[in-house]
Specification:
Shape: globular
Number of strands: 0
Helix content: over 70%
Number of helices: 8
């Protein structure tokens, strides 16, 4: 007998890798496809365009995650030996909350990379490789510092929030590392990318 919470967690395993890529595509589309001139000509106040693009990317990613969850429900109900009553359990609500938090974090991470780099292939490559390089260059030689500057800390916290400043039971990500990760890898790149797009020549 299988619980729905465990089923949906397995179904959403690829999402941390795929959702930021969708957000990058949404954030860099105008510059990659050379339609920025038309976009900014129609709406000269670029801040409106950038804010709309940020909101649209978040809504897109959350909608994709919701669609995955909905399909998971349907498939689960058709699965033999499934515990149908587990669909409405607290564990299921927790799993869906984790998916929502992960989706928002993935959208912000992808938009941050897209806004900063304004190049789809480069942004995707950096988003995929940076966590791996971080583990090699920072996490191994500086294990005490690494959690505070981890690119994945904010995503991990959004998936499973820990309400202590550091960690609870030495396994989760606390509020402190999550905030540091949020500022370093989301707020700063989006801010720099926002400024860059506000002054960059559209062509």
């Amino acid at each position: 007998m299988e619980d729905f919470a465990d089923y949906v967690r397995g179904a959403t395993l690829p999402m941390p890798a795929l959702l930021p890529i969708l957000a990058i595509l949404a954030a860099t589309g105008d510059w990659t496809q050379r339609s920025a001139m038309t976009t900014f000509a129609l709406v000269p106040r670029r801040s409106i365009v950038l804010a709309a693009r940020l909101a649209a990317a978040i809504l897109l990613i959350v909608a994709v995650a919701a669609a995955v969850a909905l399909v998971s429900v349907v498939v689960f109900l058709l699965t033999p030996h499934a515990r149908v009553e587990s669909v409405g359990s607290w564990a299921t609500l927790g799993a869906l909350g984790s998916i929502t938090g992960l989706s928002i974090a993935a959208a912000l991470t992808g938009v941050a990379a897209g806004f900063l780099l304004l190049n789809t292939p480069v942004a995707i490559t950096v988003t995929i490789l940076l966590p791996i390089l971080f583990d090699i260059l920072v996490a191994i030689p500086l294990p005490e510092v690494a959690p505070w500057i981890s690119i994945l800390a904010f995503s991990a916290w959004m998936t499973a929030p820990e309400w202590s400043w550091w960690t609870t039971q030495g396994t989760g990500v606390g509020i402190g590392p999550a905030l540091t990760s949020f500022l370093l890898f989301i707020v700063v790149p989006i801010g720099v990318g926002w400024k860059r797009q506000s002054v960059r020549e559209a062509k």
